[in-house]
Amino acid sequence: MIETDFINLKVNGENITVSTGDRLLHAIKKTQKSVPTLCYDDRIGPQGTCRMCLVEVKKGQNINYVASCTYLAENDIEVFTHSDTLIDYRKTLLELSLSEIKWDDQSSEKTKLTNNEFSAAVKEYKPENIFPELEKREVAKDDLNPFIARDYDKCIACYRCTNICNDWEQASAITIDGRGQDSKIFSFFDNKLMKSDCTFCGQCVNTCPTGALSNKKIEISLEKKETKTKSICPYCGVGCGIELISDGKKVLGATPDFDAPSLGSLCVKGQFASWDFVNSQERLTDPLLKNKNGEFEKVSWEKAYEVFSQKLNASIENNGPDSTVWWASARVVTEANYLLQKFARTVVGTNNIDNCSRT
Ligand code: SF4
Ligand code: SF4
Ligand code: FES
Question: What's the pTM?
Answer without folding.
Answer: 0.85
